Amino acid sequence: MFGFQSFDFEPDMFCMAKGLSSGYFPISSVAIGSKASNVLQKSDEIFSHVFTNCGHPVGAAVALETIAIIGEQGLVEKIKNDVGPYFAERLTELLEFPCVGEIRAAGVFGAIEIDMTKMKAASPDDDVAFTEKYIDIAWQKGLSLRGPGLTLPMIITRPQIDEIINILKNSFAEALQ
User: Are 148 and 111 in contact (CB under 8 A)?
Assistant: First the structure.
């Protein structure tokens, strides 16, 4: 359910927000791990943790239903066993472009590192310029990107991943011309 679980560690604290409601209702949360919890419980001091929008019943209801739907539809397992590996595999196809330095993926998150020095003498500014260029082209082709990273929805399908990768490949090819 959480990224840190993929790396087999438990943080002392971690924040959650719009993913709790799929962005349909404002909500956020801070979870406290067992190590921090034990320290707080043994303290004689009051742990003041009230926030302005704390405990909104609609937000809590939306979050609970979202988490239930994620479980009912098996989305975490689907990403771990099917969609995530497929996405990672397809994303590596971008390595065919000489300007791509590295590809990283975890679940439905992906990152594309541009390294123009693989093609010519270049600076970090050239990497940024190329990134902005391919993002603009991708936007014109119907793909919205925020920087060189991809954050896909949990309900994404293989055909939708194919469409994203095809748009990226076409955008890279056009940007390199």
Answer: yes
Q: pLDDT value at position 84?
A: 97
- Give how far the C-alpha of residue 171 lies from the chain's centroid of Cα atoms, to the nearest Å: 21
- Evaluate whether 164 touches 93 at the Cβ level (below 8 Å): no
Structure tokens at 94: 């971008």
Better pLDDT: 18 or 64: 64
Q: 109, 147 in Cβ contact below 8 A?
A: no
Task: Give the domain 77-176 fold.
Answer: Aspartate Aminotransferase, domain 1 (3.90.1150)
pTM score > 0.70 for this model? Answer: yes
Contact of 91 with 113, CB cutoff 8 Å: no
Contact of 168 with 138, CB cutoff 8 Å? yes
Taking only the tens place, the pLDDT of each residue in 143-173 is: 999 888 999 999 999 999 999 999 999 999 9
What six digits make up the tokens of 97?
Answer: 């472009």
From residue 175, give the alpha-carbon distance in Å to each of 113, 117, 135, 143.
15, 16, 9, 15
Any bridge partners for residue 113, and if so which?
102
Q: What is the DSSP string of 145-157?
A: -BTTEEE--TT--
How do the domains of the chain map onto residue ranges?
3-72, 77-176
